Amino acid sequence: MAGRLWRLCNLLMAAFFGLAAAVQVNDPDAGLWMVVYLVPAALTLLVSIKPSVTDNGVWRSLCDLHSAGCVVGTVALACSLFAYSQGNILHEEEGRELFGLVIITVWMGLCRSSTKSPLGGVRLIAAIVVTLFPFALWLYIYVNKEMRASWPTHCKTVI
Questions:
Q1: How far apart are CA 103 and CA 73, in angstroms?
Q2: Is pLDDT larger for residue 126 or for residue 58?
Q3: Closest by CA position to 22, among listed 145, 136, 138
Q4: pLDDT, tens digit, for every residue of 83-110?
Q5: How far apart are CA 86 and CA 148, in angstroms?
Q6: Would you say 150 and 142 are in contact if contact means Cβ atoms under 8 Å apart?
Q7: Which long-range contacts does 42-50 make (Cβ < 8 Å, 24+ apart)?
C-alpha cells in the first residue's frame, strides 16, 4: 500500500511540475523556469514508473545538481524578498517562484532519501502533504481574485 501511495504521489508531482512548466510560457524568463520545472517533472515521473531508479547514479547526480541549483535560487530569491517585499510574498512574483523552488527541493530530497529505505510512516505522510500542498496553493491563488489583480500581465493570461 505504501509503495502504491509513493508512486501515486510521484505521478501527481510529475503532473504538477509539468503544469508549472507549461504556465511559464508568457513569463519573460520562461526558458529558465521551464527547465527548472521540467527537470524534476522528468525525474519524478521516472520514480513513479520505477521507484528503484533513485539508486541509479545518473538519476542521483541530476537530482543533486538540480537541487543544489534550486537551493542557490531559493537563497537569492529569499534575500531579494527580504530586502524588497512590501507585503504577502505570494503577491510577489519572486515569492511564488521561491515557493516553487522550495517545493522542488523538498520533493527531490524525499525522492533522494527513498533510495536508502522505502518511504513509510512519517515520511510517507510528509510526501502526501507535500504532494497536496502545491495543488491547494494553486486553488487558493485561483480563487483569490484580489491576489491575481496585482499580478503582472504575463501572469494573468495563463490561468
A1: 12
A2: 58
A3: 138
A4: 887 777 766 778 888 999 999 999 999 9
A5: 16
A6: no
A7: 42/14, 43/108, 43/111, 44/10, 44/13, 44/14, 44/17, 44/107, 44/111, 45/10, 45/11, 45/14, 47/7, 47/10, 47/111, 47/114, 48/7, 48/8, 48/10, 48/11, 48/14
- In single-letter form, the type of residue at position 110 comes to L
Higher per-residue pLDDT: 115 or 29: 29
Distances (CA, A) of 74 to 40, 59, 65: 16, 22, 14
Give the CA distances from residue 38 to residues 11, 31, 80, 114, in Å, rounded to whole numbers and listed in that order. Answer: 14, 10, 24, 21
How far is the C-alpha of 81 from the C-alpha of 136, rounded, in Å? Answer: 23
Sign, CA dihedral 83-91-156-75, equals: positive
86, three cell numbers? 512590501
- In which residue are the cell numbers 505570494 written? 90
User: 115, 131, 106, 120: which is closest to 53 by C-alpha?
Assistant: 115
